[in-house]
């Protein structure tokens, strides 16, 4: 899952980015409103953490322009502004959740995790598909009750596929959502990652659709 973090305070941004990466997210950071608007409008992200007090363009204006352009990824607003009227304005502009400063990083991560889960139509923090379960809170994967140790990239890949079960995901989409822009990777990185993940899981969970991509079937009701 790829998250756009927009925060002009370097210390706060560093703490948030560190925690999000430790929780399995690929994080891209911007500190300028104009740049944030452009990236959110032109690049694929699974969610955004958006501070309101930004240089060049206010966070609320960034959010409004995203929504007017049809960008639907969930947005968690951060702000030092405490009035209920401003919170209402943010929600009306298209925010999915609101977190006033100061806040606990653990709460931010939990709220963002819930937003991403709900945006893909999932209710539980534990994703289950056949013998495989993925706990998004603990970043743990089990197959038939046995713990499976995955690398951060393998975990992100499995998490993305299970969040979008029932849909064929192209290699390009996986690349866009698994890696940050500055991450150096080979042209066959996704294929290699898929192969490693399949071997570790040891079950037929990930299907290949030749010429289209990969998918995890929708779990049985």
Automatic annotation (TrEMBL):
The keyword Transcription applies. Residues 124-218 bind DNA. The modification 4-aspartylphosphate is found at residue 51. Gene3D superfamilies: 3.40.50.2300, 6.10.250.690, Winged helix-like DNA-binding domain superfamily/Winged helix DNA-binding domain (1.10.10.10). One of its GO terms (molecular function) is phosphorelay response regulator activity. Keywords: DNA-binding, Phosphoprotein, Transcription, Transcription regulation, Two-component regulatory system. One of its GO terms (cellular component) is protein-DNA complex. Pfam families: Response_reg, Trans_reg_C. Residues 124-218 form the OmpR/PhoB-type domain. It comes from the Bacteria. One of its GO terms (biological process) is regulation of DNA-templated transcription. Residues 2-116 form the Response regulatory domain. InterPro entries: CheY-like_superfamily, OmpR/PhoB-type_DNA-bd, Sig_transdc_resp-reg_receiver, WalR-like, WH-like_DNA-bd_sf. This is DNA-binding response regulator, OmpR family, contains REC and winged-helix (WHTH) domain. It comes from Methylocapsa palsarum. The lineage of its organism: Bacteria, Pseudomonadati, Pseudomonadota, Alphaproteobacteria, Hyphomicrobiales.
